Amino acid sequence: MFSREESKKLRQEFWISFGKSFPRKWILYNTRIRDFSFKFYFDTKKALVTLDIEDPDIEIRHMYFDKVCSLRSILLEDYLPDLLFEKACYLDNGKEISRIYDLKTAVSIHNKNTWQETMVFLNDRMLRFEAFFTEYEDFLKA
């Protein structure tokens, strides 16, 4: 087990290393769609690249989720074949969002031996997600 401080230090070290290994300006929150963002996540059990739709208005959130889902076959065939879709996803704080994500298991931010493969996964999947978003951005915004 790692102390809270050791865990925090490892997390900082990972994200600094990731930024240096894959220097790029990611879209992330700059989608120009309110509460529609891309995120990286890495903990002691898994790594995720997500598209989170967090609009508090459930109708708006579901409208955007359904728009992405209308492109599901293109997204899966041309960009990210292993994506998972959750119209109702509950965060640790209890907040309900919609999430589309790619998952890598059997990795841990506490295990430096899994860092390189995780960095490659995060970079590759986010590049693909961003390519999809760039191609279909006008449709998603309409």
Describe this structure in words.
The chain is an alpha+beta fold. The protein has helices spanning 4-21, 58-70, 72-79, 115-141; strands at 36-42, 46-53, 84-90, 96-105. It has a four-stranded antiparallel sheet, covered by helices on one side. Strand 3 (84-90) and strand 4 (96-105) form a beta hairpin. It is globular. The model has no long low-confidence stretch (mean pLDDT 97).
What does this entry show, briefly?
With 142 residues, the protein is an alpha+beta fold. Helix content is 46%, strand content 23%. The chain has four helices and four strands, in the order αββααββα.
Spatial order of strands in the largest sheet: 1-2-4-3
Total number of helical segments? 4
Mean pLDDT: 97
Which oligomerization state do the chains in this entry correspond to?
single chain
**Poorly predicted ranges:** none
Structural class: alpha+beta
**Could you tell me how far the N terminus lies from the C terminus, measured between alpha carbons in angstroms?**
48 Å
Major beta-sheet overview = 4 strands, antiparallel
What Rg, in angstroms, do the CA atoms define? 16 Å
* Helix coverage percent: 40-55%
